[in-house]
Every structure is written in structure tokens, then in C-alpha cells.
Fold this sequence. Notes:
Structural class: alpha+beta
CATH superfamily: 2-C-methyl-D-erythritol 2,4-cyclodiphosphate synthase
Order of helices and strands: EEEEHHHEHEHE
CATH class: Alpha Beta
Strand content: 25-35%
Radius of gyration: 15 Å
Shape: globular
Strand order of the largest sheet: 4-1-7-5-6
Number of domains: 1
Distance between the termini: 10 Å
CATH architecture: 2-Layer Sandwich
Bound molecules: zinc ion
Amino acid sequence: MRIGNGYDIHHLVAGRPPKLGGATIPCDKGLHGHSDGDVLCHAISDALLGASALGDIGMHFPPRDHRYLNADSLELLKQVMEKLRKKRYKVVNVDSIVICEQPKLTPHFAVMRTNLSKAMGIELDQVSVKAKTSEGIGELGRGDAMAAYAVALIDLA
Ligand SMILES: [Zn+2]
């Protein structure tokens, strides 16, 4: 078995609702980024690439590449899974934390977990999503940014 971790942070900007784990969250501030800015998908993708020692998402999906402008990060996660399958890896489980001052993410966990498990081709109980606030500390606490951490365990299929 092999383990990997992933981390991502994006600025929050007015005018587009955030996408997290492929779910559009009703909120007046959204995630800035070249892609759809889905920090959770990005952290999980990096954890999977880390576990398989295949690099990171910046290397596979360069932000300067116009193909990834407004890219659907769930699709990028599917492409990461294809790279793992080529190495004959399967996902054992994924755990994640989104650091977000507001809105409350708990009502969206079910949709996020469903989207993520489908994108990775695994069962719902193999994906965990949690949320934490930053207790008002720093840029995350001020609501200027949103971050996510993820760990992934993989095994040979
Ligand atoms: Zn990102």
C-alpha cells in the first residue's frame, strides 16, 4: 500500500459561487483560479498523484495551458485516476478537510462525496469529506481564501 497527501489554497473572489468536490455551493464569494478553482478536487488529485509518485497537478495540468481554462476539476480528477489505473493502482480510501469560514458545508457533504466517489470509481464509504473553520485566524479566517487537505491510500489492483 502507498499513501499520499495533498494541499491546495485558492483566493475567494466575489461574483462566482465556489465549486467544491464538484458541488456548486450557494455563496456570494467563489474560488478564483485558472480552472474552476475546486480546492477539494485539487487536493485529492495531488494526494493520488503523490501516493503513486506521479508528480503533481501543476505538472499534469499546467495553469498556463489554455486547455485548462475554466476546466471542470472533477474531469481532471478522472484523468488523474486514468494515470493511476495505467500503473495498476486502485484507491483504498480518501480523507479530506476543507478549511472554510463560511458558508456551512455540512449540507453539501453528501453531494460532494457522491461526485468524488463517482469520479474516482469507488464506493461512497471510501471517501470522507470534513470541514473546519480557521477560527477567524489569517486569510482563511478573514474569508479571503479557502484551502483543502487530503490523504489518499492506494494499492495495486
Ligand atoms: Zn487549485
